[in-house]
Write a structure and sequence with these properties.
- By secondary structure, this protein is of the alpha+beta class.
- The radius of gyration is 17 Å and the shape is globular.
- Helix content is 17%, strand content 42%.
- Strands 11-12-13-10-14-17-16-15 form an eight-stranded mixed sheet. A seven-stranded mixed sheet has the order 3-4-2-5-8-7-6, with helices on one face. The protein has a two-stranded antiparallel sheet with strand order 1-9.
Length: 264
């Protein structure tokens, strides 16, 4: 089991969470799909649900709501958000605007857990930033039911590479044997991937979360039976057998039985 106990190096994906109209339905869906345990949190945390796997935090699920607790109208898009670790949230958030990005949710304290913000890079991909205090992030990775990879799909790889290098010290390196695919490295260690959206016209730039599974095909079958949909059917890739899917409320993610590079 790949256990994480210490802080994540700045620039490393450290957490993912999902915002949905029906929080309980999402908790039930991912419990059945991945074996997560989680329940609606207390009012002081906005009801945020901390999902666990083998007793360790793996992801968050929250209900879509306005700051005053009211229901948004219209509802924001359902999406998984990747969070990148930073040792100085305020400095990183400031660097975002100086490097062509935009701040969507300004820096804020999350009780004693840490500080967070949500930004978009110059190509429009939305990503969270997390400065850990009591909570470093995912406590288990690279195991079935846990995060195994985070991938930036972008309309401009050059602009994105420059942005993440400037703001978080992430370097983009072409992966050997993979045409047009980049490894996103922190201290020469692969922590994620990047590729161009040239083959997907009309799809906005975005970060895609990959969850590890024991069997890609059986997981996809279970997802469909539970009301999810398949956007890209299972296929064998250099990294393993993967599929891109959508939960019943619209959250898009990938599942993979890994047979190649991994990152946490």
């Amino acid at each position: 089991m790949a256990i994480v106990t210490g802080p994540y190096a700045p620039g490393t994906p450290c957490w993912v969470d999902l915002m949905v109209p029906d929080q309980q339905a999402a908790l039930d869906f991912y419990r059945d799909l991945f074996g997560w345990q989680g329940e609606v949190g207390p009012p002081e945390s906005g009801g945020y649900a901390l999902c666990t796997l083998e007793g360790r935090p793996v992801a968050g699920i929250m209900a879509a709501m306005n700051p005053d607790g009211s229901t948004p109208d219209p509802m924001p898009p359902v999406a998984w958000t990747t969070y990148l670790a930073t040792s100085d949230l305020d400095a990183t958030t400031a660097a975002v605007t100086g490097s062509g990005g935009q701040v969507m949710v300004p820096g804020m304290d999350v009780m004693t857990l840490g500080r967070m913000s949500v930004v978009s890079d110059p190509t429009g991909a939305v990503v969270g930033l997390w400065q850990a205090n009591d909570f470093p992030g995912a406590g288990i990775v690279n195991e079935p039911g846990a995060i195994i990879w985070n991938e930036l799909n972008t309309s401009d790889t050059d602009a994105a590479a420059s942005f993440y290098a400037t703001t978080l010290g992430i370097s983009a390196v072409t992966m050997k044997g993979s045409d047009g695919y980049f490894s996103l490295n922190v201290d020469e260690r692969a922590v994620g991937g990047m590729q161009a959206l040239s083959d997907a016209p009309g799809v906005p730039s975005h970060w895609l979360t990959y969850f590890a599974v024991d069997d890609t095909d059986s997981t996809v079958d279970a997802l469909v039976r539970a009301g999810g949909s398949v956007l890209a059917p299972p296929v064998d890739m250099l990294a393993g057998r993967m599929a891109i899917v959508q939960d019943p409320q619209g959250g898009v993610f990938a599942v993979i039985k890994a047979g190649g590079p991994e990152a946490g």
